[in-house]
Amino acid sequence: MNTSWFELNVSAIATVALLTLCLAILGYLASLPVKNRDAKIFVSYFLSLSLFYSSYALSSLVVYPPLKGYLLMMNNILVTAIFLIHMWFAYQCRSNPYKRELYASLLVYGLMLGISFYLFGIDNNQNPGQYLVNLTCLVWIMAVFGRKARLEEKEEGRRTLTSKMLRDFQSMTFFIVLIWLIVFYNPLAMLLGLPPFTLWYYVVQPMQFVQTTYAAIIFLNYTPQRTSFQAKVVGLVLCPLLIILALTPLLLRQLIVNLPNFAQVNQQVVVAFLFLIPFTTLVVIVGLPRFLRSTLLSPLNQILEGVRQVDAGNLMVQVPVTVRDEIGDLAQNFNQMTQSLRQSKEELTQYAETLETKVAERTQELKQSLDNLKAAQNQLIQKEKMASLGELTAGIAHEIQNPLNFVNNFAEVSAELAEELAQTVSAGDIPAATALSADLRENMGYIVENGQRASSIVRSMLQHSRSSTGERRPTDLNELADEYLRLTYHGLRRSGQDTDFQVQLCTQFEEGLKPVMVAPQDIGRVLLNLYNNAFYAVQQRQMQKTVLAGAGEEAEAPYQPTVWVSTRQVNGSVELSVRDNGVGIPEAIRDKIFQPFFTTKPTGEGTGLGLSLSYDIITKGHGGEMVVDTKPDCSTKLIIRIPLESYP
Amino acid sequence: MKILVVDDEFQMQPLFEQRFRHETNRGEVQLTFARSGEEALALLPDSGVVLILSDINMLGMSGLELLRRIRNIHPHRPPAVVMLTAYGDQNNRQQASLYGADDFLTKPIDFKLLKEKLGEYVIHNHTTGL
What we know:
The complex is a heterodimer of chains A (648) and B (130).
Chain A: H1 10-31, H2 37-61, H3 65-92, H4 99-120, H5 128-156, H6 161-192, H7 200-222, H8 229-256, H9 262-311, H10 326-427, H11 430-465, E1 473-475, H12 477-495, E2 504-509, E3 516-518, H13 520-550, E4 562-570, E5 573-580, H14 610-622, E6 625-631, E7 635-643
Parallel strand pairs in A: 2-4
Antiparallel strand pairs in A: 1-3, 4-5, 5-7, 6-7
Helix pairs in contact in A: 1-2, 1-7, 1-8, 1-9, 2-3, 3-4, 3-5, 4-5, 5-6, 6-7, 7-8, 8-9, 9-10, 10-11, 10-12, 12-13, 13-14
Chain B: E1 2-6, H1 12-19, H2 21-25, E2 30-34, H3 37-43, E3 51-55, H4 63-73, E4 80-85, H5 90-99, E5 103-106, H6 111-123
Parallel strand pairs in B: 1-2, 1-3, 3-4, 4-5
Organism (chain B): Runella aurantiaca
Domain Response regulatory (chain B): 2-122
Pfam families (chain B): Response_reg
């Protein structure tokens, strides 16, 4: 294998290992889908790095002088390219606040490097000028990263992801500075006559591995693209493996250097490693992902898919348990979990079903009690009606008695007249007979009229006790108000045990009041309530006066209980007001008087439904309104207004 | 004798007229009617009425109030005042007596009794009590 123009050496092996790593990273970076400007510059950085390592490996192998000279020149050009790209990346990374400075820096660096090449030759691999310029350039790049990071932090007021990345790149650059310092030591030592650092390979090579990997890690850490688990594992395995492979020949060389057949053994070792490195890399890059896929990733993916399905609501999913390790356990546990989830869900469904029946039962019960309540309410309303009828009975009795008296009286008188008529006829007194017959006819009219009056009272009593049909007909409100006033008043007179009670009634009915479309029966009930309340109020006031007088108070002006009833027509509606000079309504209960079951009467005397029902009849039933105006211990006035237009 | 009937029931008029037809024809009785206490009071002065028959329960001024006012003007009869009411309760009776009523009759009116008593009201002049 040994020829005159190239030789295999351990340095070349290490470089090949580095190149392999570089290519692996480059391949991975190139395969990433994100292709922004930063990524492109970074990829080109690795591309130039790979080219440099290729060229460097070649230059290490080649000993043929002219070719070696070209290769060294190539090395220097590629290193320059790397530095330029590095500087460019430093300026452009994320954003570039120093656009002009970038070009100036690139230019200055190029110029200085050109000068150093001019002074020391472009094919010189021990060029101190180049080392110096490159070191200066690296320090400059560090400064650029640092300035950009500071600027970013200053703008945001805190450490951001970008500033962290810039600082990481800064430290990576510092690492390169260290490498270059070590590399620079030997030419410097030669110049200054210091002892050379012969083992620099052992330091520089691993440092280069670390730096290369570190650069890739930083970039991948901050790129929006997520790094797959496979890539991480491959990188983690490949990097130390290649370091070991690169350094082993160097170590071996130390062991075999004293052997008599060193050159031959060395040759074999180097060749072996030259094949071992790409082979190992290939095995790691190709084999490891396959292994990971089959034993880790695809079972994990299956479980992940299962999780997604469970999340989507499919609890019947079962994951195949293909491997017997932690992943297998996970799959098994996942299956158990879905099973218990399934059970819980079934229980929940069952519970929901029973809940529904329970809700249905409760609803039924509630409906039942609501029906009961409604029935009770109807009974109460009926009771109220009967109570008011009771209050009316005495009045009705009187009102019936009155026409009946007339009927009796006129009938009696008529009998007498008839007798007289017979006498006058037999006496032949025709004019007297004619007069008598006229009187008789008149009396018959009175009898009929009174009979009808009695029937009409009975009819309205029956009407009152019957459920209202709510049928509206044109009604003379004056007549209705008067009729019920009489009924109520006489009822009070007859039923009242406290007969010391005289009330003055004043009516002021507007003449020619238009008939109102109302349900007379319902309005009758309202009137009955209003009158009864008015009488009750004046009665109460009189009782208070009596009690006061009995307690020896100064005699005041005599109290005359009075109830005023008036009607009038106001703006398209008929207004009826019932006023009394009774006890009035205290401020505290004024807004309660229309509430159902509210009563000031002693328990058992009032249902508390009278005003509430009246209010409903006027407002809901007839679209009218009912208002109260009261002064405690002075008067109360209830006003109802019913619109003249028939309420729909 | 001149009799004033006070009642808000207008049919009282034909009834009284017919019941006292003979007496009226014979000129023994003259009937006058008022439909309210106020009307009665307005009608009373210089009417020569010797007997007033008044209902108690009337709209407006009550019969008892009318009685009180009449007795304020004429503490004694004439005119004699007889109360007629459907409610023959003790209280009304006492009240009427207190105010100086000459009699208290309950409705329905017993005309036979009333006619019998007519003489009493006129003859027993200046006597008190029922």
